[in-house]
Amino acid sequence: MKIVLLIPLLLASLAGTASWAQDRIYRCGNEYTNTVPESQAKNCKLISGGNVTVVQAHKPNANRVAAATQPGQRVDAGDQRAKDSDSRLILESELKKAEARQAELLKEYNNGEPERLGAETRNNQKYIDRVAELKASISRNERDIDGIRRELSRVPTAAASQSTNNAPR
What is the Cα–Cα distance from 11 to 7, expressed in whole angstroms? Predict the structure, then answer.
């Protein structure tokens, strides 16, 4: 008999605290508050109806970020060589892809006179538009290749990074 009486009492107390927790919520721009003095100071608007759930954004670990960006801190020579090697491999593969794409584009461009496709035989404007697009693609791809080569020149080779790391300090 005692158990039967406790359950309604427990449910009533839980319902009372739930309504108390969501009493009044104020919106202040992108922030929410339930304190009246703060809301009055910031000229916040009262939100009516529905519950408000605010999720805090995940902040990166400050110690980790600070450790990675501290000036004068040295990176292990082996780790740096591995990073340089990985960077070089990625850039070299990107350069090969860009050069292969350039060869395809130049072959299709055919010195400014690509073969006409089906609808282009009857509609000269489509042909002119495709030629202009091919020319722009070739130009864009050339700039990409130049950029990759510049980046490759900045990444030390394995031999250069070893001689730098073995130099007396």
Answer: 6
CA end-to-end distance (rounded Å), the chain: 85
Q: Specify the DSSP element, H or E, that contains 163.
A: helix 158-165
Q: Is 27 exposed, middle or buried (0-12, 13-18, 19+ CB in 10 A)?
A: middle
pTM for the structure as a whole:
0.51
Cβ pair 120, 127 in contact under 8 A: yes
Three-state DSSP at 72 gives coil
> Coil, strand, or helix at residue 26?
strand
* pLDDT tier, 89 (very low <50, low <70, confident <90, very high otherwise): very high
Residue linked to tokens 């990985």: 86
Q: What is the pLDDT of residues 41-72, one digit of tens each?
A: 888 888 876 666 666 777 666 665 555 556 67
